[in-house]
Design a protein that fits this description.
Elements lengths: L1 E2 L2 E3 L6 E5 L7 E7 L10 E7 H9 L15
Antiparallel strand pairs: 1-2, 2-3, 4-5
This protein binds zinc ion.
Zinc ion (ZN) binds next to strand 5 and helix 1.
Length: 74
């Protein structure tokens, strides 16, 4: 959730350090525009999660997220 430039975790309500202009703490931002056949007909849903809420969320996954090492672009 974004208020001004401040980002809040939608799950725990905690304010993430930093802003969207000056990123400090990393969070997960999800934005989904649902299509006509989804039952949410053209709605755009978005939310933010802090890292610990992200960890809790993916713990409940039956299949864990894919992980790749970031390759440095040097
Ligand atoms: Zn959180």
């Amino acid at each position: 959730m974004k208020k001004g430039h401040v980002i809040y975790c939608n799950r725990c309500g905690r304010r993430l350090e930093g802003t969207d202009l000056l990123p400090g703490e990393e969070g997960l931002h999800i934005e989904k525009s649902w299509g006509y056949f989804s039952g949410k007909d053209g709605e755009i849903h978005s939310f933010d999660l802090c890292e610990s809420c992200y960890d809790l969320l993916v713990q409940e996954f039956k299949i864990p997220p894919e992980k790749k090492e970031q390759t440095t672009l040097l």
